[in-house]
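Note to self: keep these together.
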Amino acid sequence: MGLAHGALHEGTQDDFVRILMRNVTTLHHLLDDVTSLARLEAGREQRQIEPIDITPIFQQLCEGIRPLAQHHRLFLRCEGPAGFAADGDAVKIRRIAQT
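Structure:
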């Protein structure tokens, strides 16, 4: 059963693969964040303040939790400006938003 055995329609398979890839990326970021947190607690990490666009960070977070919202029969919509420039540390902003 499942993706490997072709039990799902092609469109559904594509959706699952897209969600899977997004979740792998999220797990990769989470692993990076845990490593960074350990370095921060050990006093070996510094902030990397630079001009960034935070819109994609929040879009990725929203897309990552959308399946959970749908599972609970909730509708999740993320709206905002196409670009939101700020000075900050992208890794730490992502970490704060995930908690």
